Amino acid sequence: MELREVIGRRRSIRFLLPHRPVDLSKIQRMLEAARIASHWGNVGSLRALVIERDKAPQDVLDALPSPVSGYQIQLAPVIIVWYIETAAVEHAGERIRELVNLGAVGFGENKKKTVEETLVPLFSQIGDVLKLPGMGEVDCGQGIAQATLMAFEQGLGTCCLGSGNPDGIREKLGLPDSCRVLVTQTVGYPAESWEAGGQRPRQPFEDLFQLNGYDTPFPRDEKVVDELREEGMIQDAAPVSWREAELEYLKKALDLTGDGLL
Ligand SMILES: Cc1cc2nc3c(=O)[nH]c(=O)nc-3n(C[C@H](O)[C@H](O)[C@H](O)COP(=O)(O)O)c2cc1C
After folding, report:
1. 125: pLDDT strictly greater than 90
2. Protein residue with its CA nearest to atom 31 in ligand 1
3. 262 Cβ inside 6 Å of ligand 1
4. More confident position, 61 or 120
5. What CATH number does the domain located at 3-196 have?
C-alpha cells in the first residue's frame, strides 16, 4: 500500500477482534517507527508501555478506559500506553553536542567550541520550562502518528483514547513521577470494515491553513484534491449508507451492551 493510501485508511477503528492475537513483532514495528520520529534537540522523550490484555491484571485494565467509548479496552488484544518522560530534557545538552559531533547540526571549524559555549548552557538552563506541556508533546505526537501509520500498513486497526485520570494510570503502572501519561492506544485486527463508516468530517481546509498572512486562507486547488482522491488518500465522507446496519451487526457479534458511548 502506498503511504497516501495508508494515510487515507487511517481512521479510528473502535471495533477490534478480541480473539485474534497480535504478534509482538508487529507492535515492535510500531515502536521502531515511533522511535525514529523527529524530536526537538533529538531529546527523545516519548515512551510506551505495551500491555497484552490476556496477561494484564484486572485492576490495570480497569484503570485504562476512556470516559468516551471505554468499551474498547475490553476488545483490544494489545493496549499501548504512550507517555512522556519529562526527565529526558535533562540530557538536552548532551544530545545537542551529539548532533553537532555527528555533522547533523552546524558547520564550520568553530562549531564544537560554539556548541559548548552557547547551545549546551542554553539547553541546560531551559530544561525546566521544556518539561511543561508543549514542544515535548508535539514530539510525542509525531512518534505516535508514525506508529499508527505502521499499524495500518500491517493490517491492524487502532484508536487513541484519552483518560479522565492519567495520573491514576501512571500510578497503577508504576511509572515515575517525572512521566505524564499522554494517551492509550488500542491495537488489534479490525472487526469493522476499513471504511469504518467513511471519512469522518474535518473542519474546512480554508479555515485551518493560511498563506503568507493570517487573513489569507491557503488556496485549495481542487485539482490536487481530485488527484488525492484518485490516489486513495481522500475517501468518501461518512456515513456510508450501510453504517447503521454494520454497527448493529458489530454489537451482536461482539456481544456489546448499551449504546457504546461510555
Ligand atoms: C489524543 C486523542 C485522544 C482520543 N480520545 C478518544 C477517546 O477517549 N475515545 C474515543 O472514542 N476516541 C478518541 N479519540 C479518537 C477521536 O475521536 C477521532 O480521532 C476523531 O473522532 C476523528 O476520527 P478519525 O480518527 O477516525 O479520523 C482520540 C483521538 C486522539 C488523537
Report:
1. no
2. 160
3. no
4. 61
5. 3.40.109.10
